[in-house]
Amino acid sequence: MPTAVIVAEDSIEIARLGGLKAEWLSLSAQANTVEIDLGAVQRIDTAGLQFLLAFRLEATALKQGLQFTNISDVTRKSAGQLGLAKALFQES
Predict the structure, then answer these.
(1) Is residue 64 within 8 Å of residue 25, measured between CB atoms?
(2) Residue 13 Ramachandran class (φ > 0 left, ψ -120 to 50 alpha, else beta)
(3) What Cα–Cα distance (Å) separates residue 10 from each residue in 5, 41, 72?
(4) pTM surpassing 0.85?
(5) What pLDDT score was predicted for residue 27?
(6) How far is CA 47 from CA 36, 38, 61, 67, in A?
(7) Which of 58, 64, 70, 83 lies at a CB distance of 3.0 to 4.6 Å from 39, suitable for a disulfide?
(8) Which CATH fold topology does 3-89 show?
């Protein structure tokens, strides 16, 4: 199976999560591995971070590889402030 590549837009916020969830699940449904490029993200709220974590947990449950790439400074800082960076990005 192929790798699904998802390029996040500039915002991962609560108002957009319904559409993002449907789109991202559709794109990743037939893949063994999912790569999510977070380089363009300039706004992310706590619901957006929760969404990324839920996506990670879902991929793990499905035994699907998941990699976040080009993690924007905003995303990394927000995740770090909430203590989610290690869980999300699986970094030491």
Answers:
(1) no
(2) beta
(3) 16, 4, 10
(4) yes
(5) 87
(6) 17, 16, 21, 20
(7) 70
(8) Transcription Regulator spoIIAA (3.30.750)
